[in-house]
Amino acid sequence: MDLRQLSYFIAVAEEGHLGRAAERLCLSQPPLTRQIQALERELSVKIFERTAKGMVLTQAGDALLKDAYTIRDLVRQAAERARRAGLGQLGRLDIGVFGSSIFGVVPKVLSLFTASHPDVELTLHNTTATDQIVALHQGRVLLAFARWMPDDADVAMELVAHEQLLVALSERHPLAQRQAIDVYELRNEQFIVGVAPVLAASVLELGRKHGFEPRLAPPTSDIVMAALMAAAGTGISLVPASMKNVHFPGMVYRPLKEEAVVDIRCYYMRKETSPLLAALLETIRTFRASGGVDFRG
Fold first, then answer.
1. Torsion angles phi and psi, residue 270, rounded to 5
2. pLDDT tens digit string along 276-292?
3. What is the distance between the alpha carbons of residues 71 and 283, in angstroms, rounded to a whole number?
4. What is the separation, in whole angstroms, between the first and last Cα of the chain?
5. Which DSSP symbol is given to 52?
6. What pTM was estimated for this model as a whole?
7. Which pLDDT value is given to residue 297?
8. For 72-89, what is the mean pLDDT?
9. How many CB atoms are located within 10 Å of the residue 19 CB?
10. Which residues of 225-250 are buried (b: 16+ CB within 10 A; e: fewer)?
11. CATH 1.10.10.10 fits 3-86, yes or no
12. CA-CA distance, 241 to 238, in Å (whole number)?
């Protein structure tokens, strides 16, 4: 029994007449008759009673018709799911994330994606940039969000957003009373940074640009811990705008008078042809083009 035979059987059952069914199927009647006879031989049971008025389903035929409808619907659903998967509208998308962008930029991008691709299952993997490179090569993630990754000729990179840098400091700090802080006013402060090299480099670049060498505390495990230590009054921290969504008792965020940003990027394998990846990249480009590229939290 194949799908063609089932479609012939459904047509005869619905029309109740071989001639009308043949016309509906754009066939002559003899080939259709042979197909129905072959189906009955295969099943070893009569599925139609032949009457003067046409074809009437037997009890076996009635049972087969119910299952034939189910099979037809499942095949149609399978075809539609395959089509949608091919368009990047269905399936599972594994994404690497790390750092403060998970508090701002990344959720906004993924929210935009799920709004237009509600049937795609997103799975997030929180791991370091070095581990994300390995995961990309092994196919465990299709795309990774990060501020920095080691250079790799097989990995492509695109900008997602420029994030404004803010000063995280204790509400007891004298500078906490300012609406905005001049970089030079931070010359005597201890800067608390995470292990990510991008933010430490930004601190050094800003300080040197304003005529002083920033004093760096030993690096903390991540930017969230750096902000927590700033809240405790052990120093100050320059953090991306995504961190505005992270609140600790006694901590405030203040903008710099001078615009300073740090980038969030996405990384993926150059030769990857997944429609899901293409769909997510399209969303990222839409986010960037619609003003999300300058992210202020």
1. -60, -35
2. 999 999 999 999 988 87
3. 36
4. 61
5. T
6. 0.72
7. 65
8. 76
9. 12
10. ebbbbbbeeebbbbbbbbbbebeeee
11. yes
12. 10
